[in-house]
Amino acid sequence: MTTTTEPLTFGSERLAALIAAVGEGALERERHNERPFAVIDLIRESGLGALRIPREHGGGGASLRELFATVIALAAADVNVAHILRGHFAHVEERLRLDEVQRQRVTALALSGAIVGNASTELGSEPAGGFVWQTRLTPDGDAYRLNGKKFFTTGTLYADYAEVLASDPADATVIALVPTDRAGVTVLDDWDGFGQRATGTGTAIFAEVAVTADELLQFSPPESDAERPPLYHSGAFFQLYVTALEVGVLHALRADAVAHVHQRARSFTWAPNPSAPDDPLLQREIGEIAAAAYVGEATVLAAADALAIAYEADVDKTDPNLELAHEASLQAAAAKVVIDGLAQKAASQIFDVGGASVVRQSHLLDRHWRNIRTLASHNPTSYKAQAIGAYYTRGTKLPGSGYF
Prior knowledge:
Butyryl-Coa Dehydrogenase, subunit A, domain 1; FMN; 3-methylbutanoyl-CoA dehydrogenase activity; alpha+beta
């Protein structure tokens, strides 16, 4: 593992160069269904995974606003790569706001260049967002054994560690951080979605995996779900991250729309202007796509600011009733409701700037719609909108699940 000596910081030339390098070959990777293992290695070496670690501890010292701005820029370059890192940045964020021991552990991990993947969700009949896991952690002498199967394990195919949610013998939720190269861990590249195809969002199997006591991350789990505090912080972060990915695709849509207008050698005889870049109808389509990208980014960053306020209050123990955390969750939900619609509309509008030839597979412009539609399917918009409406009409708090 590469240890970085100079932190990667927001706004730096190094970060800009890294994002440009991620974008190189992204279209060809999509064309050939290629997995970005080399790009993830580049990210390890760059120290991007330590972007949120404080500067005084050797990290990039980025604010939450700066982190989300980076995610948007990375998603504009390659939305698959940006999505792969979601579990990692969420892991870092969660640990940084816990006790000093957890902060020291996650700092060392992030500075080492290691990447953490997600292994939470399971297929089955249990409602999504509950705390009943088929994956089990059982005592084995002074250590434990982990057995189970996870799906939607975005990023784990590329990761050094998997953050695994499981149930202990008392059915309490526990979290284990397990190396992905440990005996008994199998990560399958079996994600068959029509979008986000290179994210490794498939199956992870844990068969008699040895887990040591110091690899358990969960602090004293509650005895019942009724005692479990709402997970507004982690839920808002996870969901806002997905919305930021959509905004990155909006920026890519704008760039591709402009490029394709300039590539048009002809227009229609009845077009307002024979030059496609000077055609006011095509300019309007591009203008609407560009406006959606702008509004989307501004909305995500505003919600990131609300999450930062809740984060600081949680660290300082000044938000015991989680009012600020709930506000951050509310803003993240509202951002999704609006941006889902803008992004899906823009992903269709791009086909109005290039004529019939724009649908050719050589352009692969359908990838933007496929990726946006896949991202928007994370906790469908209708559930978010209804929950927001219930809050404003009845004062009903938002669901306190990390999945909301």
